[in-house]
Amino acid sequence: MTTSTSKKAVSKRNVSSSSSPFIVWLNQQAGAIRFSMERLWFNPASTWITLAAIAIALSLPTSLHLLLKNMQTLTDDKREVPTITLFLKQSVSEQQAKDRAELLSELPEIDNVRVITRDEALADFRKITGFAQTLDTLNDNPLPHVLIITPKLGLMDNLDIDVDNFSKKLKSYPEVDDVQIDVEWVQRLRAILRIAERIVLVVSILLGLTVLLVVGNTIRLDIENRKEEIRVTRLIGATNAYIRRPFIYNGIWLGLFGGILSLVIVHVALLFLVEPVSKLASLYGSTFTLSGVDVGMTLEILLTSSLLGIIGSWLAVGRYLWQNNDA
Length: 327
Prior knowledge:
single chain, alpha+beta, 327 residues, Alpha-Beta Plaits, 2 domains, Cell division protein FtsX, disordered N terminus
């Protein structure tokens, strides 16, 4: 903004003061937006470096959040639910095991009950161990009937309390000899995820501060380059709001475009991971697939990056105005 353009802008503002206040406000905003966009690409190399720094700072917490989100799907409602295994007593007959399974299936905590008879268990044991000849020497089948219980999803919300209480309830039945709960891996994973959530929060805050510093320093350098123009504009009647407005919009563009660039980086990184993750999941017989950035998360990132740009530019301009007794 040259001195002549500053005078024209201020004179236009004074001339249009007789118009509708809302029209005047719109004209001022439009002029600030247009000027800030032109100023943004006044030095393309510096702008791209700034946008790259902002994009990298924003893509790191976004990537960590996506990683955490994908890990959480391993224990959420749409994934495999841990099972509870009931080992029945040796004296329990096959019919008694089926009757108990039918009664258990009516409990509100249970989604499904599957009966594995001792003969089926022995046949599976033969296939797994290869000790068929040794097992043939046994007079009786030493394996008990087994009930595999799939609990309902609500029971998984609190693994430390609900499942333990439910296990005690199941063990109280006269046919049940022992109860085994397959939840240790879920408990460990959720404990790791709770720690990861704290780490992601800390990293997000630190990198958010980094974005503030990058935007603030960029605006500060722009203010230094235009210091004389700002002084002349101030002398001919420009208010603090008029001086601050184009810098605020400049901060918005830096944050917004940096956020868009960070989303591009995250999407490209996901494309490199989709194939190896799918192959790894298939080796474990799982249908797990990576989930990307959805619409809600996209809007959240763009709003956050724009807000960081506003705050960074506001602090930089406010510091300059305060140091020059103009605030």
